[in-house]
Amino acid sequence: MTPTRYALVGTGGRASFFYTAIIQSFQESAQLVAFCDTNQTRMNVANDRLQELGVARLPTFKAHEFDRMIEVTRPETIIVTTIDRTHHQYIIRAMELGCNVLTEKPMTVDEVKCQMILDAVKATNRQLRVAFNYRYAPHNSKVRELLMKNAIGKVTSIHFEWLLNTQHGADYFRRWHRDKRNSGGLLVHKSTHHFDLVNFWLDSHPVTVFAQGDLKFYGKENAELRGVTEFYSRAHGSSAAASDPFALHMEEHPQLKTMYLDAEHEDGYYRDQSVFGDGISIEDTMGVLVSYQSGAILTYSLVAYCPWEGFRVHFNGTQGRLELDVLEQSYVNSGGEQAQEGAVAHTKVTVHPMFAPPFEVPITEGEGGHGGGDPVLLNDLFGEPAPDALRRAASHVDGAMSILTGIAANKAIRTGQVVQVRDLVSF
């Protein structure tokens, strides 16, 4: 087997999930040939990690050298793990230069960029895949299996509640995600996982979306209303941050220090901004109502300042009810806790038949992130995929349909109107 050649653009916190997997588990089928980033320090950190794994350092290219990187190193597939608002730039240019693309979620942040990507896929006939690891988590896969087997009949409604806690949830308000231009807000950046799961579970697509949302806990104004009198712009070097349980002290986390604190001199990016500072343009409290082609309706809630982290999804059907309850372990991205991402502390799947006693469905968790789902995803991406009756591999269409729910929700919040998903882009 000749290994597929990969180059990676964007060596921030998410990148190591992909490049360490290639190096540790898929060297026979995948070969990493280059790194690209706006920041040389972070590329050096990635290369240091490769050396720790016993692999030679890779050539590095700054962002403006992206075309030259492809010309010189001849990758067949580009892995895109940059900030969300730049995904479309690298996806489109990579396909124009003859490469396939694997992108981290969300595929992009708004309908204009989404249309540009869809047009590029059609024009170049290249493959674009989106890395939706939540599909592969055993409990989420089990729900798909149960619904495919008609365990509760035709699904008529879903209530989906996702809770982000004051460690992980707060982290979105410290970094680039806090600017909606960068991330599309949590309804795109985070909820793309959740809306994709609903599309996946129902084997359907959204039709109409209505939403409400606001910044109700984080931000300076909300802190002032609660009586806070001491403020700071970032934790590093701030005496006020010393007593703030929401502060992130990068110097206490070697990985954060090397990737971000030591890299600030190149781009001025502060990873430890105050969650109670000015300049936050995303919501922390959101509610969404969605109708689907299948006829089902979804009520969805996302709150980013809860005392525990996890989610509850309850399906009502013509022959019963299915309940999924998951408690997740919390973590800070790139804080040296990467193995905890999506780690499951407790999960429970219960089926309530219409005229029979309820029963709990056993779930077999595996090794690795997301209850053992991550290794299956990575094998799908970089190894030799096994036949999958659940059809978990996500295409660019899946990537688009997941973000379009969040994009429509953002538009509904702005306008106060119900949004027709078909009006956003043309397939």
From TrEMBL:
InterPro entries the UniProt entry points to: Gfo/Idh/MocA-like_OxRdtase_C, Gfo/Idh/MocA-like_OxRdtase_N, Gfo/Idh/MocA_Oxidoreductases, NAD(P)-bd_dom_sf
A Pfam family: GFO_IDH_MocA
Domain Gfo/Idh/MocA-like oxidoreductase N-terminal: 5-132
Recorded superkingdom: Eukaryota
Annotated ranges, domain Gfo/Idh/MocA-like oxidoreductase C-terminal: 144-421
Gene3D superfamilies in UniProt: Dihydrodipicolinate Reductase, domain 2, NAD(P)-binding Rossmann-like Domain
GO molecular function: nucleotide binding
Designated name of the protein: Gfo/Idh/MocA-like oxidoreductase N-terminal domain-containing protein
UniProt source species: Penicillium oxalicum (strain 114-2 / CGMCC 5302)
